[in-house]
Amino acid sequence: MKPTPIKKEIVDALIAKMGIQDFAKATIREVKQVAATAEKDSGVEYIKMEMGIPGLPAAKVGVEAQIKALQSGIAHSYPDIQGYPELKKQASRFVKAFIGVDIAAEGCVPVCGSMQGTFASFLTCSQANKQKDTVLFIDPGFPVQKMQLQVQGVKYETFDVYDFRGDKLQAKLESYLSKGNICAIVYSNPNNPSWVCLTESELQTIGTLATKYDAIVMEDLAYFAMDFREDLSVPFQPPYQPTVARYTDNYMLLISGSKAFSYAGERIGVVCISDQLFHRHFPDLAARYEGLPFGLVFSTRMLYALSSGTSHSAQYALAEMFRAACDGEYHFRDEVKVYGERAHKLKEIFLRHGFHVVYDRDLDRPVADGFYFTIGYKGMTSGQLARELMYYGVSAICLVTTGSHQEGLRVCTSFIEDHQYAQLDERMKIFAENNPA
Question: Does residue 6 surpass a pLDDT of 80?
């Protein structure tokens, strides 16, 4: 056995000190803390792949607009609970320009990032019909969304989409929806953590069943237009970002400023509610909230109770980023496509040293290169692999924490620096020699 870059004793002691019983279930923050402390104690640089934080500068066009808004004095004023009118207008344009569907400005509601958007959406969907008290996740997915439901006391069901792609998806979905208790269906597209992208036919299946069983689809577009296999960069021209919105009126689109615009720190996004759903009256919501329709319950009750609106100046930033993108002045995809380039290089290194990509295909196509990808190693469970890689100065989270039933890890490309490719190659060569598959 060749010595590992980080002494095992250092990592093991840190894990024990933090009281982590099963490293497979370690949270992102726990993995991050172990890596940071081990790096400090050993003096060896870690290749950090656990945190899904943008690794690029914030969009300049947004920063300038926000500074201008602050200098104009708007910080003293509460924002309108429905949102800054110009942002609502530009959000509606952005949806038309890059998704190819029509949503009125009225239904485009600013939120403090998609995290708040999903929290408020869960509240609204779970109260709309007393008979429908359960949320269905098409996993793997973002673990914090399940924590939000735990906080709210709302039940959820989940299944790993790995074995249910294509024609198999309908029967699997219907096995849950037919029970009559599902209020909402949640997934991300592209997917965190697997980076699989649901196809138009799969989205049509979801939309058709959502209409049939009267469930609301919450489509998380945190990684908007970041399927780099397609040129989704030209506003108002196909191809567009795939969406369930073409196949049902029961939808909410969650569009975040965090990844596509690298604007994570300002906690800004929009929830775009279909025109029909926005104005729909649910008897249970009406009884509880003075006869208000779905969209106004979402904004004037849920969001108002949570934060009394969204950061005023950040709304000006997002409005300008949307406008500039729609007008062809700001090519946001050109800035973020580096994530795909990093993923391609990283995958090549891992594959060369005996690893495999866990979620490797979208039906008949290899999965795209992007912000995340997944790796596994023959003969190792998720927990074993994650812990072993820590000895080699590589940190990543286990797929089990995302609702996946597969053995493997999620790798994030956002913090990879140019000099680390050679480091990773050298370390994975030693890993492979020490762990012959």
Answer: yes
Nearest to 284 by CA among 124, 128, 123, 122: 128
Predicted confidence at residue 437, as pLDDT, reads 76
pLDDT-based confidence at 401, cuts 50/70/90? very high
Residues 123 and 120: their CA atoms lie apart, in Å, by 5
Non-local (6+) Cβ contacts of 121 within 8 A are 184, 218, 252, 254, 271, 298
Q: Where are the alpha helices (DSSP H) in 103-260?
A: 113-128, 143-152, 168-177, 200-212
- DSSP line for 332-362: HHHHHTHHHHHHHHHHHHHHHTTEEESS-EE
d(CA 159, CA 185): 11
Express each pLDDT in 89-98 by its tens digit.
Answer: 999 999 999 9
The answer to whether residues 191 and 137 touch, using CB atoms and an 8 Å cutoff, is: no
Q: What is the DSSP string of 225-286?
A: T--TTS---STTSSS----GGGT-S-EEEEEESTTTS--GGG--EEEEE-HHHHTPPPHHHH
The residue assigned the tokens 């319950």 is: 297
Side by side, the strands of the sheet bearing 409-412 are 355-357, 372-377, 409-412, 397-398
The total of other beta-carbon atoms located within 10 Å of residue 87's CB is 29
| pLDDT tens sequence across 302-321 | 999 999 999 999 999 999 99
Which amino acid does the sequence have at 361? R
Helix (H, G, I), strand (E, B) or coil at 11: helix
Q: Give 158's strand partners.
A: 137
Distances (CA, A) of 95 to 107, 112, 242, 370: 11, 19, 11, 22
Reported pTM: 0.95
What tokens does 364 get? 């008949």
